[in-house]
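Morning!

This is the sequence you dropped in the shared folder:
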Amino acid sequence: MSSKIIGSESDFFSNMVVDAVNAIKVADGAGGFKYPIKAVNVLKAHGKSTRESVLIHGYALNCTVASQSMVKRITQARIACLDFNLMKAKMKLGVQVLVEDPEKLEAIRKRESDITMERIQKILSAGANVVLTTGGIDDLCMKYFIEAGAMAVRRCKKPDLKRIAKATGALFISSLANLEGEESFDAAMLGSAEEVVQDRVCDEELILIKNPKARTAASIILRGANDFMVDEMERSIHDALCVVKRVLESKSVVPGGGCVEAALSIYLENFATSISSREQLAIAEFARSLLVIPKTLAVNAAQDSTDLVAKLRAYHNSSQTKPEHAALKWFGLDLYEGKIRDNKAAGVFEPTISKVKSLKFATEAAITILRIDDLIKITEEKKDQRHPHDELED
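The structure's back. Tokens below.
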């Protein structure tokens, strides 16, 4: 949220992100919850200010119904997700049909129309009243959906349709062919949602899928002046979604601003003095390396890193050696003011799981590098390059 674009509106967008992540909470079967952030669809629209961005409870598709004559709202929707065209069938290139009777030519054309009609009738007879497809729907086929009172949406993006299929419990169908070589469509392939409606959000018409059966979904519509602005906003929102997901799934946080690294460094230095072998040197060096994090934070903020880190170490040494100063363990860097502050009271936290993983991966990387005993490098042969002056002398 600290980017240049939405940093001034961080309170507005942080509440939006937390609401979006809580809206997609699903149980993992082990007493906990998972937060699949892919269920949050982020759409971008030009115009208006960043504060005009909205959160919608449901999956939003940046599409409209195929025909204005179709219904715009369907309750208790049965959704079919298709990955093929619903257009008049045409013979493949290279296929030749020799017709001697002109009446048979009209029969061939009628059969081409009937093939697609039969496919649509199989889908509708299975109970589908909302059809989403990645392909096109021509005017002839639209008539069947309009007469059946169904909603059809064409040219949907394949990633969006896969997420909708997962959220509604539908199957993503790429062909109606079955094992017998015939075409069929079963009601088990359909997904369910409480309501599917075409609604105007901001300046655009969107298809909203509300309360899908399998899992909940949320959509964020970002507003901005141009492409660069909304792209930067999307990256910031995605980072914020990942952070909130980590915090909610790890269920614990630690104070930030170099607090953990400084406290761990002091603890390991004291622990190293209790060991009377050469391992003491390794532990002391590990403790010293942890201070790179608070030093780098201070340098990036254009502060005096030596002074700040020395003060931070003094605070944490006092918190670990004097029981009356135990509250100092929450203190970390305040990079705006260039001083030490209580980061717990200031609300500066980091997910515990991210901190633990970064320490583990850094340690494993260092061990892997140290296990390398020899480095063999093959040098290129030097060619005998003589200067043109030498050739003239010869």
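Headline: The chain is about 40% helix and 20% strand.

More detail when I'm at my desk.
O.
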